[in-house]
Specification:
Number of strands: 19
CATH architecture of the largest domain: 2-Layer Sandwich
Structural class: alpha+beta
Number of domains: 3
Bound molecules: adenosine-5'-diphosphate, magnesium ion
Number of helices: 22
């Protein structure tokens, strides 16, 4: 491999702070940075200058076009490329890009999901520049990260509510910091690091499987003799082909200024993970979307395909995206317990706010990770259950117990605090204890939300988390700002909050059956599938939450609810239709043909040796005929239920039908086909097997 100067190539395709400082006039640069840091609007008089410099820089990098890059509610990103060219006299052109074009784009929104938000006669949508997320050049185009709204200003994307939630969180968190005497901090930043899991498969094998092509996951497939039981893949040495792919991927991401940091093999065969260094959330989300795009694109260069689906294969682990979440003020991590009693108490108040937020808005947390693909993971004993709970670790649990009960904390390693809270010692959270089964775990100086799925945009989980925590902060600040005796009020607030929300804390085995029972006793929600989660979205308390913090209004939420149900129904419909096609045109005829082979053999055998028992042929013919009849019946049943589900005019009913009637019918068909696969000659089998898909790489 040729030597690459990584510091030199890092961020070379990005119009980042360094480039801006170098290229923009000083006043323009400073004005832009002020707007970015404070989240205020850009002074329109500087926009032309910024746009022109951006264009010159991009053209030097080989760009001919620009695009507003946005995140419609399809789950993937969207782009429409415009050339910089502008006609000048003499039949010539000039390369131009104005401030107006940079700040605002107008695009036909009618083909993106809007959940009925925008009447069809008003099809215009607007994209608006998000200057905090740097523009970049990719494949000859200047990409400008933007938010996407309807003509009347309603958010039609994932990014807008996320940015609004970061603003709300900042506003309320600052009130908390002020209570502890911080008068200088100007902005509380929300940071995330998204650990991205994925599968790799050979392109030729992928192309041979219609289910992977249409649904992103295998809908049939008899288990390979070997799965992940030997635990030999996790952190195992990288295969040459995979190592080359990962190196290429890292380099591509580094050029785009993405801090791809760690890479390793995951639990399942051909499963891997990439983790970046954390960043401010709106930027980290953009970067994660780019990472996913490049994972796929770079794979193609290596004759591979990257699968981001949550459950490409039955029987082995699926892929998630652990969302590490924290708050930072002036570079200081607010989820770091700190070194002094003062810092410890502030930390405990922030912790209490998070505990309360997650308990009060369990439904929204669950909803934020609810979609058809992720239903295969949650609660399946490989990823957190569908029940939301928080893991804090032994030490914090003991401290919370002592606060609730007003007793001395036994594990004290240092003097007690003297802040009106009787029993809290100085503590440093040790990060050794881990609970991999918890959906939301404290890992020393951040929370790790482990429910998000590999393919999803994590904007919504963070929008929910930020807004819910902002709400706790608001209530706490309202109470404490007016208190006569701050420390007494703080002590009382902590005690009450931890007492009232203790039910959400759980550090046992989240995969166990007992936890389901226990959670039920505690009154925690167990929303077992996406459809049940969607039904909670428009509860009054949720509408109030988002409205109060200016994150989403009722209309925006209603449109999203419709898109949730609609998208769910569409995904299952595609899966069902793919199964119908594969079974009727390939599996059933293949088994018929094999039965034909066997029958011919049987006949020939009996001609040659009339006394032969022909046990093998007879048994196989009999068993396969029975399974093929069952497959045929299951297929007919699936056809009927799928078309009946699809014909529901009501979107909620449609999703329910797909969930409760079509999915069981899909499972029934799969059982029959997988059984036949185990009995049929591999020569006769129409598609590559699990063994090939997972192990031939
Ligand atoms: P582990 O999952 O073993 O805890 P790391 O400690 O390396 O692994 O962190 C995992 C992810 O958490 C990384 O993407 C990392 O950048 C991110 N992370 C670390 N600190 C923070 C933070 N303060 N805010 C958000 N994410 C963070
Ligand atoms: Mg992790």
């Amino acid at each position: 491999m040729t030597f690459k100067n990584i510091p030199e190539i890092f961020g070379e395709a990005v119009f980042n702070e360094t480039v801006m400082r170098e290229r923009l006039p000083k006043e323009v640069y400073e004005s832009l940075m002020r707007s970015i840091r404070s989240g205020s609007t850009i002074d329109p008089t500087i926009a032309d200058v910024v746009a022109n410099e951006m264009k010159d820089w991009a053209v030097e990098k080989g760009a001919t076009h620009f695009t507003h890059w946005f995140q419609p509610l399809t789950g993937v990103t969207a782009e429409k490329h415009d050339a910089f060219i502008s006609p000048v006299s003499g039949g010539k052109i000039a390369m131009e890009f104005s401030g107006k074009e940079l700040i605002k784009g107008e695009s036909d929104a009618s083909s993106f999901p809007t959940g009925g938000l925008r009447a069809t006669f008003e099809a215009r949508g607007y994209t608006a520049w998000d200057p905090a997320s740097y523009a970049f050049v990719k494949d000859g185009t200047l990409f400008i990260p933007t938010a996407f709204c309807s003509y009347t200003g309603e958010a039609l994307d994932a990014k807008t509510p996320l940015i609004r939630s970061m603003d709300a969180l900042n506003k309320q968190a600052l009130r908390i910091l002020r209570l502890f005497g911080d008068t200088t901090c100007e902005h509380v930043d929300n940071t995330i690091g998204a650990e991205q899991e994925y599968f790799i498969i050979d392109k030729k094998l992928y192309d041979a499987r219609p289910d992977l092509l249409f649904a992103g996951r295998t809908l049939f497939g008899f288990s390979a003799p070997k799965g992940q039981e030997l635990e030999d893949h996790y952190f195992g040495s990288l295969k040459t082909r995979i190592a080359a792919y990962m190196a290429d991927l890292d380099e591509s991401l580094w050029r785009l200024g993405i801090n791809a940091k760690t890479k390793h093999n995951e639990a399942a065969p051909a499963q891997h993970e990439l983790a970046p260094i954390y960043a401010t959330t709106n930027i980290a989300v953009d970067q994660n979307l780019l990472t996913m795009e490049y994972m796929k694109k770079v794979a193609e260069r290596h004759g591979l395909v990257c699968l981001l689906h949550e459950k490409p294969y039955a029987g082995v682990n699926g892929s998630g995206k652990h969302n590490n979440w924290s708050l930072s003020a002036g570079g200081k991590n607010l989820l770091d317990p700190g070194k002094t009693p003062q810092e410890n108490v502030q930390f405990l108040l922030i912790l209490a706010a998070i505990v309360k937020a997650v308990d009060d808005y369990q439904d929204l947390m669950r909803l934020s990770v609810a979609y058809a693909g992720n239903d295969h993971r949650l609660g399946a004993g490989e990823a957190p259950p569908a029940i939301i709970s928080i893991f804090l670790g032994e030490e914090l649990d003991a401290i919370i117990d002592s606060i609730v009960e007003g007793t001395d904390y036994k594990g004290a390693k240092a003097p007690m605090m003297n802040l009106g809270i009787p029993s809290i010692p100085v503590f440093r959270k040790d990060t050794t204890d881990r609970n991999r089964t918890s959906p939301f775990a404290f890992t020393g100086n951040k929370f790790e939300f482990r429910m998000p799925g590999a393919s999803q945009n994590v904007a919504m989980p963070n929008t929910v988390l930020n807004t819910a925590v902002a709400e706790s902060f608001r209530l706490f600040a309202d109470e404490l700002e007016g208190a006569k005796d701050f420390h007494a009020a703080l002590s009382e607030l902590l005690r009450r909050t931890f007492r009232d929300h203790k039910r959400i804390l759980f550090d046992g085995n989240g995969y166990s059956e007992e936890w389901k029972q226990e959670a039920k006793r505690r009154g925690l929600l167990n929303l077992e599938n996406s459809v049940e989660a969607y039904k909670t979205f428009l509860a009054d308390k949720n509408i109030e939450l988002f409205a109060r913090h200016g994150v989403m209004n009722r209309v925006e939420m209603q449109s999203r609810e419709e898109i949730y149900f609609e998208n769910y129904a569409k995904v299952i419909n595609i899966e069902a239709l793919t199964m119908i096609e594969m079974a009727s045109r390939s599996y059933i005829p293949a088994v018929e043909a094999y039965i034909g082979d066997l029958s011919k053999t049987l006949k020939t055998k009996l001609t040659v040796c009339p006394d032969a028992s022909c046990k093998t042929e007879k048994t196989l013919i009999e068993t396969l005929s029975a399974w093929n009849d069952e497959a045929f019946d299951a297929l007919e049943n699936l056809k009927t239920l799928t078309s009946s589900a699809a014909s529901n005019a009501d979107v909620k009913k449609r999703a329910e039908d797909f969930c409760y009637r079509v999915i069981p019918a899909m499972k029934r068909l799969r059982v029959a086909v997988d059984q036949m696969e185990s009995l049929t000659s591999s020569d006769r089998w129409p598609f590559p097997s699990y063994s090939e898909l997972m192990f031939k790489i």
